[in-house]
Amino acid sequence: MNEALLHSIWKYKLLRQSIFKGSKGEDIEVISIGEHNQDSGPDFFNSKVRINNVLLVGNVEIHIKTSDWLKHNHHNDKAYDNIILHVVYENDREILQNEQNNVSLVELRHLIPSTLLDQYNQLQVSKQTLACGKSIQNVAGFKWKSWMDRLAITRLEEKTSYIEHLFSYSRNNYEDTLYVLLFRNFGFKINNEPFELLGKTLPFSLIKKYRDQPLKIQAMLFGVAGLLDELFEDKFPRQLQNEYVFLKHKHNFQQIKKEQWKFSKTRPANFPTIRLSQLSALLENETSLYHLIDQKPGFQLISKFFSVEPNQYWNNHFRFDNESISVSKSLGDAAIESIIINTIVPFLFFLSKHSNKEELADYAMDLLSQLPAEKNKKTKEFSFMGMPPLNALESQAQIYLLDNFCSKKRCLHCQVGESLLKSSLNMSMQ
Q1: Mean pLDDT of the chain, nearest integer
Q2: Is the distance from CB of 130 to CB of 380 less than 8 angstroms?
């Protein structure tokens, strides 16, 4: 037994009863458990308890043993003066302070079914990635959907916190914030950092200034990225060099170090040179991404915006001066979907928060629901257990669930774990 489990048993009413006998024979009825406190202080605030027909409102403290009250030094803490009920697994001694303040005590040791403890122990000792295994299929559909929605929103809120950092860096300019965020996510994890640095180094105002001159935009991107400081044989990179020498002198560009770009351990299609060529084709678009999403278009229209063809030089190159078999270097469906999931949807959520427009958050969630589910190692774990994600909203939620609950064995804080513990009670009552 541990306090986390005891808290969950009390919080989720896993004892299936609300009327108890106190240590002195009192009739104790729990009207409301109150608010679970995750910080210092009593475990539950504003609880409502009726003791011998007298309604009390106050705080509830939970311990494994009664003596933990002294062990945790609560007797010297004023925050515990308003306790109306002390709940323990084992009542091992009387507490003078509780006696003086007429605090009733409830012992749970003989009220917790062994089936519940067995279920909890199975979850904790499981070696599976998903401790609940195929039992996850037993979670009611509406509860699973509600849990997925909640986790998807939590994941979006975490992404939004990073956008707040970019917003501050961009001096509270929404369009510039989206610009840097788009750059970052064009790194597709392995090159996120240098891409973000490139976006911060090359102002969006200059991209807009040269939007009708594609060669200049490409020269700025590759030049500021530090990828034009070589002797080239091909005509195209030499053209970019010539453009960049002029632009660098005119705008006093600072370059990032080319050593920051990662080419090894990644597929050629994900080389930074290819991603830069694709990003350049997007930035040459007459319609900016910011003004496009301001119109709340559907998934298909957004996908069409990203369906651009880079300079034809890249059809048979992955790097400058290294010719390869000819193949289109346009963004694939999976890449476009990844950008929508990691750029557009979180940015809309961020905008919703800043503008107090709930419809933007609804639009963001709707876009996630329209997108196909992501296929990766994490979502495959759920598919193997019979719970494949139905769309990107669910795959995002499952990724968050695996990273923040399953891998940390936080089953007591998961609605799946809660459901399984409750089902174990049903077994004990049969």
Answers
A1: 93
A2: no
Query: Quick one: average pLDDT of 190-203?
Result: 97
Exposed, middle or buried: residue 289 (CB in 10 Å: 0-12, 13-18, 19+)?
A: buried
How far is the C-alpha of 283 from the C-alpha of 199, rounded, in Å?
12
**Tens of pLDDT, residues 107-139:** 999 999 888 988 889 899 888 999 998 889 888
Q: Are 87 and 47 in contact (CB under 8 A)?
A: no
Contact 71, 64 (CB under 8 A): no
User: Taking the CB of residue 413, how many other CB atoms lie within 10 A of it?
Assistant: 13
Q: CA 172, CA 343: separation in Å to the nearest integer?
A: 17
Angle, CA 186 vertex, CA 184 and CA 191 arms, to 5°: 70
Where exactly are the structural domains of the chain? 3-112, 170-331
Q: How far apart are the C-alpha atoms of 372 and 382, rounded to whole Å? A: 16
How many residues does the structure list for the chain? 430
Q: Give how far Cα 159 sits from Cα of 153, 178, 280, 342, 399, Å.
A: 10, 13, 25, 8, 13
Paired with 51 in beta bridges are 28, 54
Q: Tell me how far CA of residue 64 lies from CA of 8, 72, 272, in angstroms.
A: 13, 12, 56
Sign of the torsion formed by the C-alpha atoms of 335, 338, 340 and 342: negative
Single-letter residue type at 265? K
Strands 83-90 and 35-36 come out as unpaired
pLDDT tens digits, one per residue of 249-288:
999 999 999 999 999 989 999 999 999 999 999 999 888 8
Q: Could you please report the per-residue DSSP string of 37-65?
A: --SSS-SEEEEEEEETTEEEEEEEEEEEE
Residue 49 φ/ψ, nearest 5 degrees: -135, 135
What the block records as the tokens of 57 is 């409102």
From CA 343, how far away is CA 305, in angstroms rounded?
14
Q: Phi-psi category of 334—alpha, beta or left, where left has phi over 0 and alpha has psi -120 to 50? A: alpha
The predicted structure's pLDDT at residue 98: 78
If you ran DSSP here, which 8-state letter would residue 113 be given?
Answer: -
What is the C-alpha to C-alpha distance for residues 295 and 362, in angstroms, rounded to an integer?
14
